Amino acid sequence: MPKAKRSQVVSLTKTKSKGKAGRREVMDTVTEAVKTYDSAWVFSVDNMRNQYLKQVRSKMGTSRFFLGSNKVMAKALGNTPEEELNVNLHKIAQALVGDVGLLFTNLSSEDVVREFDEFQASSYPRTGTKAEYRVVIEAGEVVRGFTKESFPSNMEPTLRKLGMPTLLKQGKIVLDNEYVICEKDDTLTPDQAHLLKHFWEKMATFKVKLVAHWNKADGKFVNMKSAEDEEASDKESDDDME
């Protein structure tokens, strides 16, 4: 049994600045993880938030997370059957497409699936993401949340700069007509994203999705992507080739 270590995330985003030596160090770390752990998983994250990923790490015990350069990770694993470190590990390398990460763990498959299925967290949407639903602010005094809390009067200029035709009347922020912040499936602009935050609309959900699994004991590889994810992955691969 390997010596237990605290769950870690190895960020590969700085390997470019470290040059060849930095990439070599990361490849060595990935190679060591293959030797140490029982299985490898490729995962993606919907609505990535660092604070939530840290919570996932803490729940995963001694597991090891890698995030960053797919090419560096894939090269360490081996991109072909001839180069791979273990049987079928090249298939994990081939699954490293788009915004994904790599997980090594000694947890059972059932435990990994359960941990990721159970952890979801709501957050404010960011610029460029899709609106999950329509948000309309009614005419009259501008309020937010289920408690219909009033905005402080000094927020009126901020709301107006973000595109809302607000007015200040008797110390209250008001709208003469209803205002639509976003429609469902809108690609959010910076102003829309800021307004949704001001109105406490946490429509983004942080969730880890499992993409692929490899088991060292028998070399079994499982593609866990849905048809929708496959289509998105194929598009990303085509974009990389252009």
Structure report:
The protein is an alpha+beta fold and 242 residues long. Helix content is 36%, strand content 25%. It is built from 8 helices and 14 strands. Strands 1, 2, 3, 4, 5, 13 and 14 form a 7-stranded mixed beta sheet that branches. It has a 3-stranded antiparallel beta sheet with strand order 7-11-10, with no helix packed on it. It has a two-stranded antiparallel ribbon with strand order 6-12. Helix 1 runs parallel beside helix 3. The relative contact order is 0.17. The N terminus and C terminus are likely disordered.
Condensed summary:
The protein has 8 helices and 14 strands.
Furnish the topology, listing elements before pairings.
Elements: E1 8-11, H1 15-36, E2 39-46, H2 50-59, E3 64-67, H3 70-77, H4 89-94, E4 100-105, H5 109-118, E5 120-123, E6 135-137, E7 140-141, E8 143-144, E9 149-150, H6 156-161, E10 167-169, E11 172-175, E12 179-182, H7 190-198, E13 204-215, E14 221-223, H8 227-241
Parallel strand pairs: 1-3
Antiparallel strand pairs: 2-4, 2-13, 3-4, 5-13, 6-12, 7-11, 8-9, 10-11, 13-14
Helix pairs in contact: 1-3
From the spread of the alpha carbons, the general shape counts as elongated
Q: State the end-to-end CA separation.
A: 46 Å
Number of extended strands: 14
Rg, rounded, reads 23 Å
The structural class is alpha+beta
Strand content: 25-35%
Low-confidence stretches: 1-17, 236-242
Helix content: 25-40%
User: How would you name the oligomeric state of the polypeptide chains in this document?
Assistant: single chain
Order of helices and strands: EHEHEHHEHEEEEEHEEEHEEH
Major β-sheet annotation: 7 strands, mixed
Counted by DSSP, the helix tally is 8
Mean pLDDT: 82
